[in-house]
Amino acid sequence: MPELPEVQTVLDGLSEVLTNRVLTGLECYYPGTVIVDPLLPDEAFPARVKETIRRGKYMILHLDSGAGLIIHLRMTGKLVYEPDPREPHKHERARILLEGGDAVRFIDPRTFGKITLFASANLSRFMPALGPEPLSKAFDAQYLSGLIAHRSAPIKNLLLDQRIVAGLGNIYVCELLYRARVQPQREGRKVSAPEIRRIVNHTKDVLQEALEVGGTSISDYRRIDDKSGEFQHFLRVYQKLECPKGHPLGNLRLGGRSSFYCPVCQK
DNA sequence: CAATGATCCTGTCCGC
DNA sequence: TGCGGACAGGATCATT
Fold first, then answer.
1. Would residue A181 show up in a list of annotated catalytic residues for this protein?
2. Which residue is nearest to nucleotide B8 (CA to C1')?
3. Statement: the pTM of the whole predicted model exceeds 0.70
4. Of the candidates A97, A109, A104, which has an alpha carbon nearest to the alpha carbon of residue A59?
5. Which nucleotide is nearest to A150 (CA to C1')?
6. Which residues in chain A, range 160-199, keep a C-beta under 7 Å from any nucleic strand C atom?
7. Contact of A68 with A76, CB cutoff 8 Å
8. Which sign does the torsion angle of CA A236, A240, A242, A246 carry?
9. Residues 212-251 of A with CB under 7 A from strand C
10. What pLDDT, on a 0 to 100 scale, did the predictor assign at position A220?
11. N or C terminus of chain A: which is more exposed, having fewer CB within 10 Å?
């Protein structure tokens, strides 16, 4: 669920919590959630956060000890700052310990999320090859065209491929394709130049809008009550029955994921 | 190399 | 009230 805007929002909150704080350790409560670089220096902790970076859906924290953390929330991961926490929460898979007894809990019911503790020099060994940031200038129509012109896979699958562009997930891809008026199942090679331009532009627009409302645009739809609302007004097709113009939506399964689209507005 | 499908995992929801 | 099954989806791995 967390896609680029949500990850950025979480990272901003995490940076705020960790500023000027001393990290004293990282605990793991579920096998596999924490991955430790074999070459990690012994003096990884204590350390302060020197820099925080988002790359696609990955959060990277560089520490002043020569170590760093990569945090990936996958689908259900959450970071919760907890002053003076006691027993690990039911779904707490790991915990970042802070000097003074506070902690940041990594809560992840479905256990897909990961925290990697790495030696700074080895960052690249723990990061996959990712395409450009969708909001950067590198992600433009010419770039995208070059990567999809010969592809027969559905445009939606291509946009979900993090090697092509880093940070999009199922929900925003459904939304941006609606805005770009292109059906998700269209083969990459059959997407015209004007359509590619619209896809690129609407990718940037939808992400920018979501960032401006603090990434609350998608979130857990089951927790509507907790979040007062930006996202009900944000989504136009995802998990909807009809598009804003009142046309009944189609729902295809592409790459194993539900794909909402409007058969009338999208060609 | 490209495309597709299975896999990991648990909470939620629906129908009976 | 409880049960089984479908579903949710990011990334990786296996298969064709």
1. no
2. A112
3. yes
4. A104
5. B2
6. 160, 162, 169-171
7. no
8. negative
9. 238
10. 55
11. C
Q: What is the architecture of the domain spanning A4-126?
A: Alpha-Beta Barrel (3.20)
Q: CATH for A141-261, among 1.10.8.50, 3.30.365.10, 3.30.420.40, 3.40.50.300?
A: 1.10.8.50
d(CA A250, CA A151): 24
Name A226's Cβ contacts closer than 8 Å, sequence gap at least 6. none
Nucleotide C10: closest residue by CA–C1': A74
Residue A3 appears among annotated catalytic residues: yes
A136 touches strand C (CB under 7 A): no
* Pairwise CA distance, residues A206 & A173, whole Å: 9
CB of A98 closer than 8 Å to CB of A120: no
The whole-number mean pLDDT for each consecutive block of 10 residues of chain A, a chain of 267 residues, reads: 90 92 96 93 95 95 96 92 87 95 93 95 92 95 94 93 93 94 94 96 94 74 44 83 91 88 95
A122 and A68 in contact (C-beta within 8 Å)? no
Marked catalytic residue, from A3, A6, A175, A195 = A3
Residue that the structure tokens 């395409």 belong to: A131
Which of chain A's residues 54-113 bind strand C, using a 7 Å CB cutoff?
A: 56-58, 72, 74-76, 110, 112
Kindly name the residue from A5, A6, A57, A134 that is annotated as catalytic. Answer: A57
* Domain edges within chain A: 4-126, 141-261
